[in-house]
Design a protein that fits this description.
Layout: H1 5-10, E1 29-41, E2 43-45, E3 51-53, E4 60-73, E5 78-93, E6 96-103, E7 106-117, E8 122-132, E9 152-162, E10 168-179, E11 187-188, E12 192-205, E13 208-219, E14 223-224, E15 227-228, E16 236-249, E17 252-258, E18 260-265, E19 267-268, E20 273-282
Antiparallel strand pairs: 1-4, 1-20, 2-3, 2-19, 4-5, 5-6, 5-7, 7-8, 8-9, 9-10, 10-12, 11-14, 12-13, 13-16, 14-15, 16-17, 16-18, 17-20
């Protein structure tokens, strides 16, 4: 379970996406976000879906991370998106305390707007993402890794809908994640179906808005040295994430939220807290 601590903080790339992130940024425009996550738990979802204390006696995980997201509009239809995390991870039990810090796996995405309906209020886009390790993966089982040590490739179909004249919007994403083998451990994590559904409103009361996000990962069994591990290795998590945001300026938002786990398998329990500062702008202004 120590090897899943970094995943518990964000689960999906979507955890750090701002409300306006579904719409193309436009050529020369950008948005950026800095997010802080904190997660602390003594429980895990076991392979059968039951939530129980960690198997290790007296175990507790304390995980924190800072995520930097930068999205740039290359053309009016093509965006490039970079996400880089920095982790501070602890796993403590009766055998001792373990702590690791460092840059985690980095994600680079290209998103292309396929078409827009209803005069641009309903964008549909395709996104392709590569996740790649930037740190050496530790073989020592007593070291908490800040990354997973292998490449992932993702394909997403994304749709958004502006509910104007109401100050509200909705978003639906569906994707698939292909996970390659970690050559050091000869372990190949199972591929995953991923999704997100979001409903939010901007400036509902003054500069205050909010959103509710339902996102999940449903994994297939992995393999070690080509041998399938079976259903006991399936990774699954479903989060409900209510979030409030406040418009500090017309181009700057402050977000505060919590990600509540509804169900899971082979995943840390507990509810990560998150706070983020989002800003959008243009390179031409």
């Amino acid at each position: 379970m120590r090897r899943a601590l970094s995943a518990a903080l964000v689960g999906l790339l979507a955890a750090a996406v701002p409300a306006s992130g579904q719409w193309p940024a436009g050529a020369g425009n950008f948005w950026g976000k800095v997010s802080f996550f904190h997660h602390q738990t003594t429980e895990q979802f076991r392979a059968d879906g039951e939530k129980k204390p960690f198997i290790n006696t007296g175990a507790e995980s304390i995980s924190q991370a800072i995520f930097l997201d930068l999205n740039v509009g290359v053309t009016d239809r093509l965006d490039l998106w970079l996400q880089a995390p920095y982790y501070d991870l602890e796993f403590n039990d009766a055998a001792g305390d373990r702590k690791s810090t460092g840059i985690g796996d980095v994600r680079l995405s290209a998103r292309y707007n396929l078409f827009q309906l209803r005069e641009g209020s309903l964008p549909v886009s395709a996104r392709f993402t590569t996740k790649f390790p930037v740190n050496e993966f530790p073989i020592d089982a007593e070291i908490v890794p800040v990354g997973e040590g292998q490449f992932d490739f993702e394909a997403w179909l994304e749709g958004g809908l502006s509910l104007w004249p109401l100050p509200a919007y909705s978003v639906v994403w569906v994707g698939y994640r292909w996970r390659l083998e970690n050559s050091k451990t000869t372990r190949k994590p199972g591929n995953e179906l991923v999704f997100l559904a979001e409903l939010g409103g901007t400036e509902l009361v003054g500069g205050l808005g909010g959103k509710v996000v339902l996102d999940g990962i449903f994994g297939e069994p992995g393999a070690i040295q080509g041998v399938q591990l079976g259903s006991v290795d399936e990774r699954e998590i479903l989060y409900l994430a209510p979030t409030l945001f406040y418009s500090l300026t017309p181009s700057t938002l402050l977000e505060v939220g919590v990600r509540i786990p509804l169900q899971g398998k082979n995943y840390p329990a507990g509810a990560p807290m998150q706070i983020g500062l989002f800003r959008r702008g243009s390179f031409w202004n």
